[in-house]
Amino acid sequence: xxxxxxxxxxxxxxxxxxAALTEHGDEAKLMAGGHSLIPxxxxxxxxxxxxxxxxxxxxxxSIDDRGDHIAIGALTRHMSVETSELLGAEAPLxxxxxxxxxxxxxxxxxTIGGSLAHGDPASxxxxxxxxxxxxxxxKGPGGEREIAATDFFTGFLxxxxxxxxxxxxxxVPKMAGAGWSYQKFNRRAQDWAIVGVxxxxxxxxxxxxxxxxPTPMRAxxxxxxxxGGGSIDDAAAAAxxxxxxxxxxxxxxxxxxxxxxxxxxxxxxxxQG
Amino acid sequence: xxxxxxxNGQTYSADVxxxxxxxxxxxxxxxxxxxxVGCDTSxxxxxxxxxxxxxxxxxxVLAVQARGAEITTIEGMAGDDGTLHPMQQAFMECHGLQCGxxxxxxxxxxxxxxxxxxxxxxxxxxxxxxxxxxxxxxxHNIVKSVMAAAGSPVTxxxxx
Amino acid sequence: xxxxxxxxxxxKEDPKxxxxxxxxxxxxxxxxxxxxxxxxxxxxxxxINSIDTxxxxxxxxVAGVYTGPQLAEMGLWIAPLPCAWPxxxxxxxxxxxPTAMDEVHHVGEIVAVVLADSRYGAADxxxxxxxxxxxxxxxxxxxxxxxxxxxxxxxxxxxxxxxxPLIPDPDALEAAFANATHxxxxxxxxxxxxxxxxxxxxxxxxxxxxxxxxxxxxxxxVPHILKVMIAATTGISEAxxxxxxxxxxxxxxxxxxxNPDEILAVTLANKLGRAVRWTETRSEAAFSTHQxxxxxxxIELAAxxxxxxxxxxxxxxxxxxxxxxxxxxxxxxxxxxxYTGVYDVPxxxxxCDGYFTNLTPTDxxxxxxxxxxxxAIERAMDLLxxxxxxxxxxxxxxxxxxxxxxxxxxxxxxxLVFDSGHYSPNLDAALEMSDYAGxxxxxxxxxxxxxAKQLGIGLCTYVEICGLAPSRALAxxxxxxxxxxxxxxxxxxxxxxxxxxxSTPHGQGHETSWSMIVADKLGIDPDDVTVLHSDTAISPLGxxxxxxxxxxxxxxxxxxxxxxxxDKAKQIAAHQxxxxxxxxxxxxxxxxxxxxxxxxxxxxxxxxxxxxxxxxPDGMEPNLQEQVTxxxxxxxxxxxxxxxxxEVDTETGEVELIDYIAIxxxxxxINPLIVEGQVHGGIxxxxxxxxxxxxxxxxxxxxxxxxxxxxxxxxxxxxxxxKTGFTTTPSTxxxxxxxxxxxxxxxxxxxxxxNAICDALSPYGVTDLEMPATPQRVWNAINGGAS
Lengths: 273, 160, 787
Fold this sequence. Notes:
Order of helices and strands of chain B: EEHEEEHHHH
Shape of chain C: globular
Number of helices of chain C: 21
Distance between the termini of chain B: 25 Å
Strand order of the largest sheet of chain B: 2-1-5-3-4
Number of domains of chain C: 3
Number of strands of chain C: 28
Strand content of chain B: 5-15%
Low-confidence stretches of chain B: 152-160
CATH architecture of the largest domain in chain C: 2-Layer Sandwich
Helix content of chain C: 25-40%
Largest sheet of chain C: 7 strands, mixed
CATH topology of the largest domain in chain C: Aldehyde Oxidoreductase, domain 4
Number of domains of chain B: 2
Helix content of chain B: 25-40%
Oligomer: heterotrimer
CATH architecture of the largest domain in chain B: Roll
CATH class of the largest domain in chain B: Alpha Beta
């Protein structure tokens, strides 16, 4: 399995990356760690004409305390998120979820920005930023803009990023002391979740779902139930409302619906415990 | 595109297509065939090497991404005099290999694990090796090997 | 020298493999080599209307593009790919060439070959070949094959390949069921498994620079068989073929075939005078390497009021896949004799129907027929225990051959003669090591508490047939080859020893074990023994490694060759020491004269004397080397009891294997370190079948999970530590008393695990679960749905 040939452009700055994207249009694809893109390229399911390598640029790889939020550079590797003491104190859910991505070797290379920009409904990190109410920062030819996590995932493997925009930063509100849980259900540790549920309980409770539809999503009905004074069981019963889970070898839609309910119950029990 | 790297302490360079996977750069262009390919989905870990001391699946990295990198492969683990790295020695003593195909990747993943967590529990060893598949050993003796290696001083990339 | 046999010894093979110096096929680079790229069918069944190779031919670095008909016209082969086991005289055997001619019969069948000057160039060029297909109805399951509304091969009117019966006494069988107090029926699915040796298969064919000869490096278990078969298929003289199996990264049966790529590489290299190579990608392996299992089983047991079995009747429908590969049709037969397990079954009957489907061919995979048989009888024993109302341990105990006591040479209703067995102490050891009583108490506690996580305990006492040998027995099954093994042992002038082994390893550690046997026999240091193997130029005679036969046939041959060496050395020693040979003792590598302290001659000195030939008995040939071809009088029958402990999450259906205990009996052991490793690995492959793996196909015959991302080979995270123990019941089939252990773990473990899950869920009325027992299947079963 070998990628099809492409032209390679190294971007040494965000502006250079945006210039390359502007020049090459939808032929071009940004590559950070490459751990979402290269597997697709090897199967020739992705055949970009131009690879813009942003993985070697300086910066965008630190985790900083910005007062009311933590700013994570888009090129920060999963392993750095997983081992961040700052995140451990202020957003432990994100730190934990990063440790559930792939396996350690994957986490040494894969980046948070790359994972989020890939927009895979089955991956872990989108659920975390949805539950945490994070904000994503994108930069394009017209400058920088902020996108709420809930607005970021627009379709299957599609995000709100324009063809000439680059995700540069993820801003996570500080929530020291908040309850949280991440319930990942899979058959083999290294695999994507069959269903996953992230929960954050900080006064009100937010819940998000992994692999329950074409995009990463909030479990809005379950959130409404629990925040409206319902019981954990009420929320669990509503876990999959509005979801459209896939059928595959690991489970059909009905089973996933059931799993979402069990996992929402477990997540809420842990987050509120 | 010219890709220059430092591998096991030596400088290598080769002119390769940008699409060249790092593992093929090592194997086909530099003749460093100790690093194996066992799958095409980043699942098996047979191709695990170290970049900057950290385990990486070299089938999921382009050679051009590794320009200037400090790489250690299985060929760089034993001492210049042939003395096995403590992890290699532990695999031998605990019968942590049979056909040997996953072994280079296992050794590289395991040494990376111990550099990050020098005294892992058995569960942590199993978790640390979740991305490396073996079809022969049932993992029992691999886990034993890594636990044994953790009991003695371990240095990473002794050959580099 | 202290004896080394029976003691754990580190492996000679390891330093190379640990340092990246082991050379697998893909590691061998040859100047001027061409890379083969395979153009593979995306359809399971289709007519090939036309193939346009022009774009591929025009691509940079492409040396040639060949379609099936073009290759046939070039005269590259004289016969189709071989099936060495035509199980019946009327077996249907569709012609199977290295490339499709005008119709494809499974997804991934080769329709054209490109040759390019690089790995990447071959992959690119293969994509440029444009094939026009006319899709035909596909047969994508055994059920569809039986139904017969579509046929897998247009040239054949039926999907049925053969019918094979083994019913020694039909009247007795009928009577057993007519008179039974209890009967149980189990219907089981043996899903297709992708063997997934970690090293994908690969070939490199190198023509001799002198012309005429071709060396094939192949990731194969069977270099000797391959040589004969390539000669027979291509018409190239055996004398001009050399087959080398370099380091081989696991086989598990998947590398014992004669594959299209092997024929293509040899013949194209021979034709073009350039080296030709190919390495399969992992996802390609779902099509380019045969798969295992693929059976629907029905087993019925008849028993008296005490649960004592009186009859066993089995029918198997077996999925051949698209073609008969080397031993495809025989795999169910290998299992047929073992459906009575370790039990005293007075009446037995087995029938098998083989069917063609438009799926990747099946063939041997670790255990080959025997895990299937063991699964069926051991699952059925649990059903019988439920029916009779006794525990799974008790039902087994009541039915063990020989009453569970030690026996030798015991005839079974399936017409075998078990070499030796001693089942009750083996079961006792497993129950004790697992704290069976404690587990049952914990299970009850959880049941009483309504715990969401229920505990299940599964037992399995398996037996297997090892040491595929007795050539006459194989002849009786229409098997196309013998089962002997060859060995040569030779002293070098320096006193070191070379062993030439016909048995070829791919991870089993032959070099270490054979050295140990020789060291003890000849009284020398194991490090002074070099084992040569896996190259037909160095080891011209052999029948290779499969079916747990290496030690019980090949290892025994080596031991016997050592005996012959010692006999000859004794003649020389007697001559040189002027003693009667009968008065000589041989111990610790030294001959001594009885009753004459100090009159000693080390065997190395005799070896040097045999080399100089200065002073040998009249008429004796120089040099000290002997060879043996051993054909055992009987198979060997290892056995064991496994206990699987599972925790079933009744809310999600998730099954966790929390403990695994294996008490195996493989007769005498040479290297316990290696034995234990074989048990571990075997167990995990059986657990994988029970819980994780299964090639899944859609109705059009597309494999839904060809990659290791979707085909779930388990990792260290999914496996528990494995507790092993052994009993020792020496074999009577060979002088070493050894049996074989390569497949034992796999044969015992799938049934133990599924028995454990069903045991956990018995309060829910669950009596069976289809493998792999995915969380969804388990959850459905708990909730009364289909499993």
